[in-house]
Q: What sequence folds into this?
């Protein structure tokens, strides 16, 4: 049987992590192709709805990438994203979904290598975890 | 500092004593109208009323045993746009706490509103009370039992009936600056008082001078020693019940699959959202184009899993509603009461809310000056980038 290949949906902010991902490409960093990137203006624009929708409808992991604290192009979007993600993760944990499938990472426009490393690590971890049980819930 | 007073009760007519005090506020122009619960002519239910004529306060029920709507909603309607006159509202602790949360979201304006809080023995489901009334177990005799029981904090519901689950597990039975909730201008205190002789009244800074000058009350710093003891006892009992319900819930909801099993009878009516005082958004995201999709999109989703439940997004509905408002959930339990499938929505929200509120050391409804966690942040907090939490 072919090895399980996790599918990651990534919400990346325009100013930092998306540009960082671009840099990873132009500098020919190698990273696994398991990631589908959605380009947003700010990590603060990620509502938990989209994270959950991804997890329920087929993603094994969700990566949210934003600027480092203090570097947000809109001043505070990443701080708000952090609270939102913390709340979502707290809710999921209280309801028994304890697997760490939602990652929030600060990756700047100059950190192409960090982006590649993050994706590589996330794929490794998700492979260990196996397929996301949430995506199998047809009655969700 | 709030000023304390006691109102004497004549011939055991407790309600009349309270109404008499409220009447004097209206008659002497401290306020020009009052929001207060009153029995419907059918006598099998209570509603909030807005009263201008002091005489109409006769027969009002300060301790209404039902909560058909969250009065914070009523207060929001009343105050949010152009309320030029001073209005008082008699509210239960959970209604005050909801109003405080709504004030933070600019859905309640406290400028011309005087909040009168009252100790709460608990409430019944509207349908239960209607039945009770038919069986002759409601009305004045019930209120009398309540008031008598509050002296010792022992309030047995009529046989065959129970308080709403949310009330059984509510650890905020009183409005009390020293104990729990702080935002009230007047507090009517019943727990721990020999209610057939006297009841306690506390007047906050905003009104204290006017109440004294107009001769409505004379202050004396007396409070029966039993007050704290009884309140603490009631809080302890309810906290115990709360923890037991949390434990039970955790036993049933072990993961998302078992959650869906427990909530299998959810019919997606969104009643819990409609009844919730905190869910104030004029246009809820669940009713926007975010949840409208192309037919082909539904097919793609169905394709992936072989088939999907329609309409989809039941799990998302509950999880997202929580992620949007659970930090402000004050546990009034109207979601429970509104659920046609009698699902334990309130226990779910309380259980999850407990965890999330603790995460931000946030107590919803405590103080209008506090900023809700979803509307603020700290630069140095929540180290979750590493995947921890």
A:
């Amino acid at each position: 049987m072919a090895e399980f290949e996790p599918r990651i949906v990534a919400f990346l902010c325009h100013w930092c992590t998306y540009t960082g991902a671009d840099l990873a490409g132009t500098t020919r960093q190698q990273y696994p192709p398991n990631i589908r990137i959605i380009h947003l203006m700010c990590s603060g624009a990620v509502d938990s709805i989209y994270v959950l929708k991804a997890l329920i409808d087929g993603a094994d992991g969700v990566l949210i990438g934003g600027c480092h604290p203090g570097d947000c192009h809109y001043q505070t979007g990443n701080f708000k994203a952090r609270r939102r993600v913390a709340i979502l993760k707290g809710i999921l944990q209280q309801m028994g979904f304890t697997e760490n499938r939602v990652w929030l990472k600060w990756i700047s426009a100059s950190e192409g290598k960090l982006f590649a490393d993050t994706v590589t690590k996330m794929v490794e971890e998700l492979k260990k975890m196996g397929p996301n049980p949430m995506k199998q819930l047809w009655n969700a | 500092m709030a000023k304390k007073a006691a109102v004497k009760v004549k011939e055991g007519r407790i309600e009349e004593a309270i109404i008499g005090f409220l009447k004097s506020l209206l008659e002497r122009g401290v306020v020009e109208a009052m929001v207060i619960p009153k029995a419907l002519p059918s006598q099998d239910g209570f509603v909030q009323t807005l009263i201008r004529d002091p005489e109409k306060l006769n027969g009002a029920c300060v301790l209404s045993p039902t909560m058909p709507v969250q009065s914070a909603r009523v207060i929001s309607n009343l105050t949010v746009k152009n309320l030029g006159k001073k209005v008082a509202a008699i509210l239960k602790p959970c209604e005050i706490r909801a109003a405080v949360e709504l004030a933070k979201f600019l859905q309640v304006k406290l400028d011309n509103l005087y909040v009168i809080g009252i100790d709460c023995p608990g409430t019944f489901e509207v349908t239960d009370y209607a039945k009770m009334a038919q069986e002759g177990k409601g009305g004045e005799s019930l209120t009398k039992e309540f008031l008598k029981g509050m002296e010792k904090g022992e309030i047995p519901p009529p046989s065959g009936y129970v308080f709403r689950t949310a009330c059984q597990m509510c650890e905020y039975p009183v409005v009390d600056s020293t104990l729990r909730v702080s935002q009230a201008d007047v507090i009517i205190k019943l727990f721990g008082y020999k209610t057939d002789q006297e009841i306690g009244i506390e007047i906050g800074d905003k009104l204290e001078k006017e109440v004294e000058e107009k001769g409505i009350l004379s202050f004396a710093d007396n409070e029966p020693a039993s007050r704290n003891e009884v309140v603490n006892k009631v809080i302890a009992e309810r906290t115990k019940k709360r923890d037991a319900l949390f434990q039970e819930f955790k036993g049933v909801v072990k993961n998302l699959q078992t959650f869906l099993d427990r909530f299998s009878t959810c019919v997606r009516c969104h009643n819990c959202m409609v009844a919730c005082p905190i869910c104030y958004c004029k246009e809820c995201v669940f009713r926007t184009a975010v949840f409208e999709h192309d037919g082909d999109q539904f097919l793609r989703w169905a394709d992936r899993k072989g088939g999907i439940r329609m309409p989809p997004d039941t799990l998302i509905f509950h999880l997202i509603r929580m992620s949007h408002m659970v930090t402000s959930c004050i546990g009034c339990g109207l979601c429970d009461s509104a659920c046609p499938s009698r699902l334990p929505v309130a226990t779910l929200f309380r259980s999850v809310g407990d965890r999330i509120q603790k995460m931000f050391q946030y107590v919803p409804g405590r103080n209008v000056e506090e900023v809700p966690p979803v509307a603020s942040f700290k630069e140095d907090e929540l180290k979750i980038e590493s995947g921890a939490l």
Notes: The mean pLDDT of chain A is 94. The beta strands of chain A are 8-13, 35-40, 61-66, 102-106. Helices of chain A lie at 17-26, 48-56, 77-94, 112-129. The interface with chain B takes residues 47-49, 52-53, 56-58, 69-70, 76, 79-80, 82-97, 100, 103-106, 133-140 of chain A (CB under 8 Å).
